[in-house]
Write a structure and sequence with these properties.
mainly alpha; two-stranded antiparallel sheet; 225 residues
């Protein structure tokens, strides 16, 4: 799950949906959870649900969501506790993305963080797939779009092996931005630093984990990981 940096609120809002364009201008027209691009009807999602006491107009309580992630999540989390969130946690390190489309907690996490990662997967239905126990509804096509993009990622990788150049790396990055699913691109090109650099630059306001002088992971503000 891509870590994002929303920055400070550009203005005060009298209606939460008015924040949509400001959010998208900051972190892209991409679901903050499943990473699917949403060119139309992207939704402003309340991380801490309003029905459970969340602030309806607080920029810090907003993320962008596709209708599927928003519809699966609904009001099922009482607050932010017990989950990992892309605006305050180092989420890119917490989830493992494979070519078989399995999304699961990364290896090497503490038991506490691994449980939070799994809670997040379950809350949003990120692992829904017809071939798994947790099957999607007929309306939930996230898995289908993800499958199509994984084919593009696979082809892009083998094209890169034949045509290594900075210009081609930038083209791959533009393709990645247009098709979304940042974490799958990062996983596929994890050993190709030139391409990684361009992908990271292409996605707006992506937060990259920081480390202290001793090599320890620096927790993000208000985050757990």
């Amino acid at each position: 799950m891509r870590c994002v940096d929303k920055g400070i609120a550009p203005e005060a809002y009298s209606y939460y949906k008015d924040a949509r364009n400001d959010l998208a201008g900051r972190i892209g027209w991409i679901c903050s959870y499943c990473e699917m691009p949403v060119k139309n009807m992207i939704e402003v999602e309340h991380v801490h649900p309003i029905n459970n006491g969340g602030d309806a107009l607080d920029w810090n309580n907003f993320l962008l969501s596709c209708r599927y992630c928003n519809g699966v999540k609904l009001n099922r989390n009482l607050n932010r506790t017990g989950y990992l969130w892309p605006d305050i946690d180092n989420t890119i390190m917490a989830f493992e993305y494979t070519e078989s489309e399995i999304v699961e907690p990364s290896a090497g996490l503490t038991d506490e963080i691994a449980m939070m990662a799994q809670n997040t997967i379950d809350l949003l239905g990120l692992n829904r797939h017809p071939g798994l126990v947790n099957k999607p509804t007929k309306a939930d096509t996230r898995w289908k779009i993800r499958t199509e993009v994984l084919g593009i990622i696979h082809d892009s990788y083998y094209d890169w092996l034949e045509h290594r150049s900075l210009a081609f790396a930038r083209q791959i990055a533009r393709t990645a931005l247009g098709h979304g699913f940042y974490s799958f691109w990062i996983k596929k090109f994890e050993h190709e630093q030139v391409v990684l650099n361009e992908i990271m630059l292409a996605f707006p306001h992506t937060h990259h984990p920081q480390y202290d002088a001793a090599g320890g992971l620096v927790l993000r503000e208000n985050g757990s990981f």
